[in-house]
Specification:
Oligomer: single chain
Structural class: mainly alpha
Largest sheet: none
Low-confidence stretches: none
Distance between the termini: 38 Å
Shape: elongated
Mean pLDDT: 90
């Protein structure tokens, strides 16, 4: 549902599959964009840090966050530099308090 809502919010109103030359690439780009927006909406950084502190296994982290492993991977893969720094600091704080 979050993925489909992201398509709407991103202005992806027309279906592209099979609509001519070059549309497959644009369709893939739109899927990546929609996945990224959905993942950002579903997985807040503080929740990701807390889940990662609690679990090592990606499927357990995803389950804790109530998202699929795919959405978790998208969220991690599409993090911005500042977000990466926030997560690293959050995880490092755990190590210093352990």
């Amino acid at each position: 549902m979050a993925h489909e809502l992201a398509h709407i919010d991103l202005g992806h109103h027309e279906q592209l599959a099979g609509c001519g030359r070059g549309t497959a690439r644009l369709a893939r780009r739109r899927e990546v964009q929609a996945d990224g927006l959905a993942a950002r909406r579903l997985v807040r950084l503080d929740d990701l840090i807390a889940a990662r502190r609690a679990y090592d296994c990606p499927w357990l982290v995803a389950e804790h966050l109530d998202v699929t492993e795919h959405m978790l991977r998208v969220r991690i893969d599409q993090m911005y530099g500042g977000e990466i720094a926030v997560v690293r600091r959050g995880l490092a704080e755990q190590e210093t308090h352990a």
